[in-house]
Amino acid sequence: MRTVRLAVVGGDGIGPEVVEQGLRVLRAAVDGEAEIATTEFRLGAARYLETGDVLPDDELAAIAEHDAILLGAVGGVPGDPRLKDANIERGLLLKLRFALDHYVNLRPTRLWPGVVSPLRDAGEVDFVVVREGTEGPYVGNGGAIRVGTPAEVANEVSVNTAFGVERVVRYAFEQASARRNGLTLVHKTNVLTFAGSLWHRTVDAIAPEYPEVAVDYLHVDAATIFLVTDPARFDVIVTDNLFGDILTDLAAAISGGIGLAASGNLNPSGAFPSMFEPVHGSAPDIAGTGKADPTAAILSTALLLEHLGMSEAAARITAAVTADLAARDGSPRTTAEVGDGVLAALPP
Amino acid sequence: MRTVRLAVVGGDGIGPEVVEQGLRVLRAAVDGEAEIATTEFRLGAARYLETGDVLPDDELAAIAEHDAILLGAVGGVPGDPRLKDANIERGLLLKLRFALDHYVNLRPTRLWPGVVSPLRDAGEVDFVVVREGTEGPYVGNGGAIRVGTPAEVANEVSVNTAFGVERVVRYAFEQASARRNGLTLVHKTNVLTFAGSLWHRTVDAIAPEYPEVAVDYLHVDAATIFLVTDPARFDVIVTDNLFGDILTDLAAAISGGIGLAASGNLNPSGAFPSMFEPVHGSAPDIAGTGKADPTAAILSTALLLEHLGMSEAAARITAAVTADLAARDGSPRTTAEVGDGVLAALPP
Ligand SMILES: CC(C)[C@H](C(=O)O)[C@@H](O)C(=O)O
Ligand SMILES: CC(C)[C@H](C(=O)O)[C@@H](O)C(=O)O
User: Fold this and answer.
1) What is the pLDDT of residue A346?
2) In this structure, are A238 and A301 located in the same domain?
3) Within a domain: residue A210?
4) Which of B255, B287, B320 is the last residue of a domain?
5) GO: which molecular function terms (chains A, B) (predicted)?
6) What is the CA radius of gyration of chain A?
7) Tens digits of residue pLDDT in B128-159
8) Contact B142 A193 (CB under 8 A)
9) What integer pLDDT is reported at residue B347 of this predicted model?
10) Are the beta carbons of A160 and B160 separated by less than 8 Å?
11) For position A182, what pLDDT does the model report?
12) pLDDT band at A75 (very low <50, low <70, confident <90, very high)
């Protein structure tokens, strides 16, 4: 039997709670086919407050030895003064994405049967955002002078390379080709002319290799309009790290909420383990109350299995979530009850 | 009688059509109180294709001699190869904003009575976005090396200064104080740490001067969620140039469309004329068909009058638009018919 070595970073707030349900469903879905050998890494705001560590080198190295990573959510209570000097997001979450070269941040959006969109007329929403994960304004290439004086200047540099853009654009074309043959590049080429030109030229250069894919372009501002007025028009959106961050929260909102949004931080080359996480944060305000919806974490385990080549087990999880969502009657269920519901709906 | 010297840049596509209706309503609203002396400037993609000029220095200087600017929309047919080397947006629209130091880009959003939001349950939407207009990733401070080779690197620099952030944040506090005392800073402080810190510290430093204003902070991704799930929570949003661009298109979408979204590019110091324009673009596909809704252009003239201190005339325009929108029965009206309707509803 195959063994999957899984690094588990529950993190803070509701992170460990939703990961627990994700692991239950994951184990059940691969039962008889694979064994999930987990290593827990206690990382996040709580660990930082206790030990001062954010992501020690030896733990990063240990995580990198695994086949995949399942992450809950990291981040303490907003405004906690003790966290002021630690940027857990940068030092832990983004560090993992960058160190493990997660250049594809894959974020599917579906309006599941039975789920009510805040939009009157959402139509059939089923698209994926292929967000670049290792470049753009996320590189941490900023700086400031005369900090705290009236003459302060604070810069942030968005770094974009042909190397980085090409690999994620290729991935997006592959996705489009395997889906409904629609690819929309989203950028702001009329303002960010250098980066925009690189993205545009890259898409244009690769397009002839995928003659079946219809390529479209939208400025990021216009893309938000269409996500509200006609989200069904999208199949695959490819975009940079920051635009992808913004658009995927909006995508989650229009398709029934951040509680259902799964994501994969992928290193498609396989050089490093990929990392799967719900798009939502640690929500410290509801931690421990049992109110957190683990669906996004559960769906993230389906992306994990897909990535590891276990498509049938992945499909079983998706089918179970579909059945569970369709059966929900709107009465609140605890985190564990949602896990129970999905487990019960898991096809044999 | 007061004379308002108005520079008019109709621009491309539907720009001149909507500006024509805006001017009709503007003139009627100030009748007896002021005379509108217009100077037309033929600028935009059409002019560029004819003469090769985007914004000649002498025309910029002539525009700057006016009391205010009314702009329709600029930009040619997307993908027109003859426009490939001219970036009309950068060379004309952004050049005007930067040269005339329009550091406040004021974008009100209202769900008008009678207008149907694409959201099932929008609530009472009535907020303004105070978008910084002269800094951030819009400064044009990018560059690229090895263009067209596999080793290309394309950078974009977001420049943020204490000078620039403080003046727009002060303006936003004034707005909040004159409205419902709510101010939400939107940024991405956990990723853009240098710029984010400057924005955050600036808001924190000014807040004690406005003890009546409740200050809130949202990451830009989370802000898109709330704009969909609870837009009524916002009063004043203050944010940087790019986030403001993105959020205001989304705001227009949730409140009934870009056809109703007005904006003012303000130089509150009065050193340069302010510029008023609908948020929408030139929509070349419907130019000349009479399908363009001039409401956003008309509402932009209300912002113009407000800025010039003619609040009563501004209020008359707003009242007329309110009445006209409430009376619409959904059957299509031409651009001129909407102008007629607003004119007819104008209080004496
Ligand atoms: C926590 C934050 C750094 C992160 C991001 O901006 O990528 C989050 O918003 C996300 O989308 O995963
Ligand atoms: C045309 C473009 C440069 C402009 C902007 O990005 O500011 C537009 O989108 C706007 O919002 O006025």
Assistant:
1) 97
2) no
3) yes
4) B255
5) 3-isopropylmalate dehydrogenase activity
6) 20
7) 999 999 999 999 999 999 999 999 999 999 99
8) yes
9) 93
10) no
11) 98
12) very high
Q: List pLDDT tens digits, range A112-161.
A: 999 999 999 999 999 999 999 999 999 999 999 999 999 999 999 999 99
Residue B100 CA: distances (Å) to CA of B6, B67, B104, B174, B273? 15, 12, 11, 22, 7
Residues of A acting as catalytic residues: 138, 188, 221, 245, 249
Atom of ligand 1 nearest to the CA of A277: 12
pLDDT at residue B330, as a whole number = 81
The answer, yes or no, to whether residue A5 has pLDDT greater than 90, is yes
Q: Given pLDDT bands bounded at 50, 70 and 90, which one contains residue B79? A: confident
Spell out where chain A has E strands.
2-11, 34-40, 68-73, 104-110, 126-132, 136-145, 153-161, 182-187, 214-219, 236-239, 262-266, 274-278
Report the C-alpha gap between A28 and A47 in whole angstroms.
Answer: 30
Closest CA to A131 of A108, A106, A159: A106
The domain spanning residue B238 has which CATH number? 3.40.718.10
Give the number of domains in chain A.
Answer: 2
Chain A residues with CB-CB distance to B195 below 8 A? 142, 154-156
Residue B43 Cα to ligand 2 midpoint, Å, equals 16
Question: Any binding-site annotation on A282?
Answer: yes
Select the residue of B120, B137, B254 nearest A191 (Cβ to Cβ).
Answer: B137
Question: Which pLDDT belongs to residue B227?
Answer: 98
Domain encompassing residue A139: 117-255
The dihedral over CA atoms of A180, A320, A265, B188, expressed in degrees to the nearest 10, equals 90
How many CB contacts within 8 angstroms connect chain A with chain B? 193
Fill in the DSSP letter of residue A276: E
Query: Looking at beta carbons, which residues of chain A come within 8 Å of B184?
Result: none
